[in-house]
């Protein structure tokens, strides 16, 4: 992830970074331009359709559907953003719970108990690390797929790692309790942080392995495709060759929304828009070490 | 459920999967096309209505209502999606709580206590299974219906199964406490996971047995029906025979939203868009066995 | 409440159930039609206003306000639906907590303690019943009204019944604790369910006795009224007698939204759209009896 | 607050209550009418601008901005409503917690302990009262203002009263625990209710002392003002003197939304739209006395 | 932050405060005006483009995209406002938890234990202060940036201060428990407040260091820029020199939304729209001292 100054309009407008939708859509925009040019040539030069022909009124369809396509796309981007933000919240909660667990254990364990301090120091940081790797794995993504994935079988590293680390943490804490190193009251107040790890892991897996319903996604793409592809037919009659940049820009504006949504709906992938989960895991390591 | 690559536009646009609304709506789209053709023939060839007649202005009504119908449909789909996503969250919570319960019991029960370990290993997985079956049942769907359903009586399998399994889990845990195998402090930290099962079950039942208010659903369908059916009257005067694909496409765009909403508002049915609850139940079984 | 098959379009479109807004609005739709006919006759036959007169441009006002009235109405219906759905969630929570309380007590109370088992079995079911009646009462609705309601005084049945039942439940549980029939740890894990009853009751009362702000409700109705009533003035010039069904349909589409909102914003009333709280109370009774 | 029957359209449309925006905006509506009349006279009689002049196309600006101003106003009203409803929920939670605290203490305190019963009976009711007064105070409103308010200093009644009452409640409860009148387990289950008082107080203060960001509020008012003031320039060319009622009505429709938002965003003020917090405090008193 | 009277329209409309978007955008509005004047001169005087040329139809593009740009901007401002309001809620929660912790410790600590009372009195207030400074720091903002920031290294003050203070608080509380000055039950009920500090800190850091996804932000700015810059081409043909103020006003209305969003999405910066966190920290100090 890149931290940027949102007020620097100049950079935003005239620079084209890797994640910029202009760069991604440029070939398609040129394609749309050529397509529009073709339609323009056909209608204006070959078929000689005059501006008064009914074909021009196809724009009635576009006018009627502008609302619905705009709303769908804006809502699509918003709900992808909600997933992204939920992912960020979950990793924020992981930070909080790692810190709180360290703060509590620091107070409860005698300062000379190097053995247990070392253990928690390492294991808490490892959890964040293991979870980050777990979320980047293809195995996690296809966990709920109805098709088999023989190509992923070789990746299968045996057990579910975050669960194993969480289990280690809980076992050690319970042993401290059984050995009377911490009291029952202290066990109770450690419980919240200990279960949070698995809750966060499960919620991240949910975001990762559950795309939006297939039929919704299919419909949206078919709708955009057909909407944009029929634009030139009426636009070239009103705008002649000016229709080329106009259609390309409308294509850019609408399709960007879908493209951005695709980018951010899986926030654990590691491209420029995604959540910096490795960085967060590093910070957890640093802060836990500071405390414990 | 099918895990798909949302960036593969080509497949989305040119393939027509089973859950694609194009496939579902095709007969009706052809019907709308024929109806539009009929109106076109009537107005243009038989009644010879000219473009300047007032009937053309019926489009004023459509313009005025486009906005409200678009918002209604987009909100309809969104609120159906919210139910679907809530269902997914609930099953995610079931995963988390099953894992946490297993992790805790693994730490608390002595490793030689095969008897109890076996019990929890089995019973936690069974809960997910029993709940999945309970949610697919017609009985659950019609639980709150004001009409009687004599045809479902033979299905009635006696008691409410998920409740019985949850009761088993709690009884065993309470017995462990009474036999001092776990302490009171440990009982308290097991409580959260134990009650979560019944909470999740109740929330899933709510999604299953409470459709959106009848009068809202009725209104929406009557509104779409009348809106689309009156479109050809004015469109054929502006677009002549081009109105046929135009009306069919508008019909497709609007009706798809309602059809998708109908599909996903009950997320426990097992079709291509629905939540893979059997698969999740399997995963719970696998992960709990790994831990315990 | 009626459980329906949302995919049965035919029934939705051609049947007119009791809660259908078409049935409710039919007299007013006929009224709007007659009013439009009157305006049409006046403008077209009596005043002989031509299509080129400025009065036709009144439609500019309608165009400009279409957005805002559509959004207001759709949001109005959505926020009424949110209340309805919150009501459903609260009753779902009542189901969950009743079941969990029964499951826990079943595990904690010795199976021969018929006396206490009977008590909880009855009292938990009674709570749901008493709450359902409490929410249907006019007294509850006017609890926060600034005007006095002498006509309701005779209904006043003394004390607040749900509170009394909740108090009974808590007293008995506390007595079990004092008599050492349940331990302190067990008391702590029963606490969550016991307080939930009163929390649910208070939240339902809030939905019942707090309508949306008066000035908002007033504005919305005045706005719809004036918007629809001025429609015919410009529409009859464009549509002549076709304006009659057109205005009636626009009236139906817009007013239905407000009418549906009025129906569902108080979800505890017992009409076809309302929540089946008596049925839920019955189910609680059945399931608690199964468990305990 | 006034409890009203939302289905009584007649009253809503033809009565003009104190909180009706028509009454509040009437002078301004008349002003807008006169201004429009002035512009109409200027353009039509004095400058003799014909309908074909470019000034008429200023309506292009209004068309383009209609949507954004509509959304802004509807969202503005909705977010003000969300504050109002959050305020209502908080006071609902105060009711619930007061009742639950009373129910619990009733069970825990021996019935002959008049001294403590009396104390809680009084102090719980007093909290609601003190909080209601605290929220109506100007001091609370300007607590976070960056300007000094010497005129309010004389109001400063020393300490923060709700905090003092909450502190009393907690001190007494802790004393009961130290005197072994309640056990540690009972203290733990009383904790939730005791901290809720201060949480509710803080949340109400937040709603009271944090208006929406200044620059947003400023922008919205400037936008409405300029939008409505430029309407007559193009409307009088299309509508002539009919523009007078039309502009006045558009002004009414748009400005009402902002006026309603201003009314309800501070829900603790005591006018007709505000929350009946004194009434709720009374009810708390009544119900707590019934229980304890 | 400035507490203002939202009903004082006069001040809002005719005063131009520091945070007013009119002041910020004035140079750009003048720029847009000059640009429009240039286009007007070019098209009307130099190229002599008549009103009937196709270039005028470029407005079709603007009409089609008005809806999507309006929604994007309104949603953008709303989601920035949500961050701002979440920040306010978090600081409200800090107030509540500081108060509750003080209230509880006041009850639990013997009144003669000046040593511990002093400690909590100071440390609770210090936490709010330290957090406020931590959130204003550039280091916090760039914590997750993928680029290195050598220029900030000198600021690095060693350890994470809020964590250190939270650790102090927990250590002292745990020592009180070990020294039997507070019981285990009391430790349990202090736990909620103690962990809340770190949770609030982490959530504020999240708001501070995670801007909205880069590609979304880039797209929005490019879209606004291109949309507004192409407006004059068609508007000068319809409006001639009137296009100058019209384009400037549309520019003001749309860009203000983005500018306001940029302002409020980081609520911890200290300008006129930002949250008064230093003031809240002062209030916490005052109220904690009153209680303890």
Describe the structure.
The structure is a homopentamer of 292-residue chains. With 292 residues, chain A is mostly helical. Chain A has one domain (34-48, 55-291). Chain A contains eleven helices and no strands. Chain A has helices spanning 9-14, 21-46, 59-108, 114-136, 138-141, 150-153, 161-178, 184-209, 214-239, 243-265, 277-291. Chain A is elongated, with a radius of gyration of 27 Å. In chain A, 55% of the residues are buried. The model of chain A has no long low-confidence stretch (mean pLDDT 86). Chains in contact: A-B, A-E, B-C, C-D, D-E. Chains A, B, C, D, E: The chain crosses the membrane at residues 21-42, 54-75, 223-254. Chains A, B, C, D, E: InterPro entries: YneE/VCCN1/2-like (IPR044669). Chains A, B, C, D, E: Keywords: Cell membrane, Ion transport, Membrane, Transmembrane, Transmembrane helix, Transport. Chains A, B, C, D, E: One of its GO terms (molecular function) is chloride channel activity. Chains A, B, C, D, E: It is a multi-pass membrane protein.
């Amino acid at each position: 992830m890149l931290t940027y100054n949102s007020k620097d309009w100049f950079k935003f407008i005239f620079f084209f970074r890797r994640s910029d939708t202009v760069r991604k859509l440029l070939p398609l925009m040129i394609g749309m331009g050529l397509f529009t040019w073709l339609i323009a040539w056909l209608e204006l030069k070959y078929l000689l359709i005059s501006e008064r022909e009914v074909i021009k009124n196809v724009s009635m369809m576009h006018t009627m559907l502008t609302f619905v396509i705009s709303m769908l796309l804006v809502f699509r981007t918003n709900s992808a953003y909600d997933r992204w933000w939920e992912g960020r919240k979950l990793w924020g909660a992981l930070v909080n719970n790692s810190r709180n667990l360290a703060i509590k254990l620091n107070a409860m364990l005698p300062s000379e108990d190097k053995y247990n301090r070392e253990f928690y120091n390492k294991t808490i940081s490892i959890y964040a690390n293991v979870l980050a790797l777990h979320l980047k794995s293809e195995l996690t993504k296809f966990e709920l797929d109805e098709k088999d994935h023989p190509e992923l079988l070789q990746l299968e590293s045996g057990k579910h790692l975050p669960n194993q680390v969480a289990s280690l943490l809980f076992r050690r804490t319970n042993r401290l309790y059984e050995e009377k190193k911490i009291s029952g009251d202290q066990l109770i107040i450690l419980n919240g942080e200990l279960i949070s790890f698995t809750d966060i892991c499960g919620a991240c897996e949910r975001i990762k392995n559950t795309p939006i319903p297939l039929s919704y996604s299919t419909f949206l793409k078919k709708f955009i495709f057909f909407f944009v592809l029929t634009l030139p037919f009426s636009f070239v009659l009103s705008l002649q060759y000016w229709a080329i940049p106009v259609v390309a820009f409308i294509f850019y504006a609408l399709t960007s929304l879908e493209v951005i949504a695709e980018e951010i709906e899986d926030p654990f992938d590691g491209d420029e828009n995604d959540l910096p989960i490795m960085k967060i895991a590093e910070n957890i390591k640093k802060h836990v070490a500071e405390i414990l």
